[in-house]
Amino acid sequence: MESIGGFDYTRLHFDAEGAAQNQTELNELNQGAQQATDVIFIAHGFRNDENDATGWYSRFLENLRKDIGGAFQAALGRRKFLIAAVYWPSKAFPEDVNFDGSTAGIDDELAQKEEARAKLRDLRDTVARAEQKPRIDRAIELLDTLKGNPRAQDEFADLVLSLLDHSELDATEGVDNVRARAGSELLEALATPIRNPVAVDDTDEGGTAGLGQVFVQGEDGGAQSLGSFFGSIFGRVGQFLNLTTWYVMKNRAGIVGANGVAAAVRGLKASAPAIKVHLVGHSLGGRLMAACAKSLGQPPKAQPDSLIVLEAAFSHFGFSPDNGRGQTGFFPRRRCQPGCEGPLFGNVFGAR
Question: CA 286, CA 349: separation in Å to the nearest integer?
Fold first, then answer.
């Protein structure tokens, strides 16, 4: 077993459907738990490949080791922590965005179109289900007809957004508003200058920087542009593809948490019933762990002992029974009955 920051450390790899990729890793987790009092499951964000994620985990754990020294260590007594590091296929997208109406290194319309074509091929090959691939092929064919053609733009957007057909997304996050609008309107919105654009922080690791949420619900129920603006139709198409990738990754994070990590927690609790389980996630890893906690609240229940989300990438209405428009957030498993108080998860977040 590895050691990082003085903590025993085991890796858990999951595919896009949340299936564990290596039974040996789960066996190592369950064996290691026999000598531990606590297991910390930790999940990275959407832009991290395995090397980046390991670097993030290492820095986090090394700082944690420093912080639990001295009096804090005395308070922990004989507790021994095992780290279960989650690795999930968190497909990134390029964030080489400038706020002057261009993308860094892409100066002409043809280059932007070819960049969009490459993104579409990558989505077809790495994200689309078998039945969705012909739709993405059709979207690729339409690229050459998009300029000045609203009808082709509408069809193009519908084809690309079909990647979300099997997604279970939070209704409070605006995806329904995106899908309800004509594709030509969505692409036009990306050409409109906005007030107070927020620059991308290239140092953010797995966060929501850039165009993570290009469209949100406005006061009129429509969508507002939150990203940069792009004069070329193909520059806007590129950002639209980023938006779609973002929503696909949001859904994937939830699947991995609810299916894969929740199953690992249940297996761990069966192997070591007295073990304390802590869930920690950054960015979409926060969504992954919140989805895991939600799943663990369903029979057979296996309540975690704590949940920490760091800059979690989901709507602040995610835990709400009502976003002000009668919509329940993604994570509550039930509405609070009259007279009840506290989180809708019951005691899921009660640290022990």
Answer: 13
Residue 14 pairs in a beta bridge with 20
Class of domain 2-90+254-310: alpha beta
Q: How confident is the model at residue 105 (pLDDT cuts 50, 70, 90)?
A: very low
**Closest to 322 measured CA to CA, from 335, 333, 312:** 335
Domain boundaries, the chain: 2-90+254-310, 109-249
43-74 pLDDT, tens digit per residue, is 999 877 888 999 999 999 998 888 887 667 77
Give the long-range contacts of residues 176-180, CB within 8 A, separation 24 or more. 177/215, 177/216, 177/217, 177/221, 177/222, 177/223, 178/215, 178/223, 178/243
**Paired tokens of 160:** 């690309």
CA angle 61-64-67, nearest 5°? 160
241 Cβ contact partners less than 8 Å away, ≥ 6 residues apart: 93, 116, 119, 120, 123, 160
